[in-house]
Amino acid sequence: MKAKTSTSTSQKRYFVEGRIFAVVRSNNHQLKHIKNMSQGEIAFAVIKSDPPRMGQIIDAGRDGLSFSYIENGKRLPRTSEMDILFAEKEFHLSRLPFEPIDETVEDEKRPFSTHSMKRMTVQFGELTPFQQRQIDHLLEHFTTGEVPEHSEYTSAG
Predict the structure, then answer these.
(1) Which of 21, 76, 91, 104 is deepest in the core (most CB within 10 A)?
(2) φ, ψ at 32 (rounded to 5°)
(3) pLDDT-based confidence at 26, cuts 50/70/90?
(4) Burial (CB count within 10 angstroms: exposed 0-12, middle 13-18, buried 19+), residue 78
């Protein structure tokens, strides 16, 4: 799927509140519908799917997002899709096409960490109208404020 032509810094970014996760899909993806699952069952399904990247979303916009994750040495699939998951609110958005546009090491911010932390910024590919409405819902209901344009938190900027 072809990525949008705009860059991820062309649109506003917002800090995401709560524990909302980005889960890059693997070939053995297990997460389908979370409506009747407990948070433990959701966590188990995500871990069992062995995602190449999974982490807490830092900021998001209509065109992409960034998230922190623990480096695991796994390669991304050639065609990448991700899910956005907010188990506490039963919010699950599936199969978002994306293209990585930036990846940085965050270890300098966590000097005593035993794991290598990274931050990945992605740009969404072509979204369905439903997916775009769900992204708009996420931005409207689960964000705390706009990320300043020249902030250290601004994705790829």
Answers:
(1) 21
(2) -115, -75
(3) confident
(4) exposed
Which pair of tokens denotes residue 30?
């297990």
Confidence grade of residue 68 (pLDDT, cut at 50, 70, 90)? very high
CA 65 remoteness from chain centre? 6
- Coil, strand or helix: which one is 43? helix
Relative to beta strand 54-61, strand 91-105 is: unpaired
Which residues lie closer than 8 Å to 89 by C-beta, 6 or more apart? 18, 142
Calpha distance 125→77 (Å, rounded):
15
Domains of the chain: 14-146 (2.40.10.220)
pLDDT tens string 79-104: 789 989 898 888 888 889 999 999 99
Mean pLDDT, the chain, integer: 81
41/149 Cα distance (integer angstroms) = 38
* Mean pLDDT of the 29-50 span: 72
Residue 43: both structure tokens together:
């966590």
- Tokens representing residue 45 in the block: 């399904």
Euclidean distance between CA atoms 84 and 57, whole angstroms = 9
47 contacts: CB under 8 Å, gap ≥ 6: none
